[in-house]
Amino acid sequence: MNTFRVQGRGNSERGSALAMIILSVAALAALSAAMMAVSMSSAKEQGAEERESQARYICQAGLTQSLYQMERGLSGAVGTSQNPTSWGGGRFWVTATPSGASLTQLRATGLENGVGSSQELVVRAVPVNMWTWALFGRESANLDSSVRVDSYNSTLGSYASQVSGSGVTAHSLAGGSLGSNGDIFVGPASNIWGNATPGPSHTVEIDGGNVSGSTTPALAPVDFPAINVPTYTNFGPLTVNSATTVPSGNRTYTNLRVKSNKTLTIIGPAEVVMSNLTMESNASIVIDDTNGPVTLTVIDNFILDQNSSLHATSYNPASLRLNMLSDNVADPEVTVRLDTITIGSNSSIYGCIYAPEARITLDSEFSLYGSLMARSLDLDSNCNFHYDENLMTSMWNGTVTYETVAWRQVPYQN
């Protein structure tokens, strides 16, 4: 009897334990299935996110390709929705829509394993032209009191015919920008009708002067290309003691001196290279630009005495480019004979001056119509600088770059 009861209880307990095990296994199986479903769903979501992220990268690749083609004169359209361009394991196409004289709207669509993304970029065409400044000092630009910087357009007539106002506020257009890769100082009563743009992380100090435009620092420094000096037949020295004319063509002089009250006329088109250029008081160099412009390249000394002038017969600043290799910057580690650069008071130039290694100090009452770029600039009181806005097109070499105006992610459209 006792043995029988013990065996019956053992079978019952074993059955209960087996049922619990079966229930536990079933619960674990259900939990495992649920976890697998969650994991698969998470993996699917993660995979979709990865594909969407990849589609965005493909869009950016499409926009980059579009800009590359635009800089080479093409429209910017790449592929089509019916015939997309392959990139990696995905595809893209870009549409290009002009939206103004210099603006283009680019819309890129990227596809990655059935997931799409679209982005929009608006760019502005910027002509590649170094002559976009009235004044630019690579290291610094310092304006003393009562310096005037503005702009005009030589195709509309003389500067005087475009001026409004009187006294220190007299000016023409407001495109006379001043720039530097370093700091800028604007002294008392100096007026800039345009922007004053210092270099990245640099500043504009205004001490009683005025800047009509922006003083925001540039995003990147301006490059100063090297001057390549051509080699031409050397005609030795030339001293102008009476009215003299140099014919059209290219030539070199060791030294060129224009005596007081005398005029040298150079027939364009021409390129004239000289070791030194000296213009005595009231001397003139006149460019006959009927058939083309003239480039003057001065290797060493440049001396412009008071009341002397350089200009074209048309008074078009684009007709005269003056390159100065002169290096008048003392280097304590190198012993050299410093070049001399002297620009006297009441003298004037209609042209584009490029002196990448020279520190230029301009005496009072000097006037420039055109553009000036140098290593550094120190301008005495009452100097006047009138940027010719015609240089934006007349000195353009035909190529452009593009700057971003706006970018955004837009709804995907197949």
Gist of the model:
The protein is of the alpha/beta class and 414 residues long.
Note down, in words, how this protein is organized.
- The protein has 414 residues and is an alpha/beta fold.
- The chain has two domains: 2-126 and 402-410, no CATH class; 135-394, no CATH class.
- Helix content is 18%, strand content 40%.
- The chain is built from two helices and 27 strands.
- The strands form two sheets. The protein has a 22-stranded parallel sheet that branches.
- It is elongated.
- The N and C termini lie far apart (85 Å).
- Mean pLDDT is 87; it is low at 1-8 and 331-337.
Overall average residue pLDDT: 87
- The amount of beta strand, in percent, is 35-45%
Which stretches are poorly predicted, pLDDT < 50 over at least 5 residues?
Answer: 1-8, 331-337
What is the helix content? 10-25%
Shape: elongated
**For the terminal residues, how far apart are their CA atoms?**
85 Å
Task: Lay out the secondary structure.
Layout: H1 2-70, E1 85-87, E2 90-98, E3 103-112, E4 115-127, E5 135-143, E6 148-152, E7 178-180, E8 183-186, E9 191-192, E10 196-197, E11 204-206, E12 210-211, E13 238-240, E14 244-246, E15 249-258, E16 263-267, E17 270-279, E18 284-288, E19 294-298, E20 302-304, E21 309-312, E22 320-324, E23 341-343, E24 348-362, E25 367-379, E26 384-388, H2 391-394, E27 400-410
Parallel strand pairs: 5-7, 5-8, 5-25, 6-9, 6-26, 7-10, 8-11, 9-12, 13-15, 14-16, 15-17, 16-18, 17-19, 17-20, 18-21, 19-22, 20-23, 21-24, 22-24, 24-25, 25-26
Antiparallel strand pairs: 1-2, 2-3, 3-4, 4-27
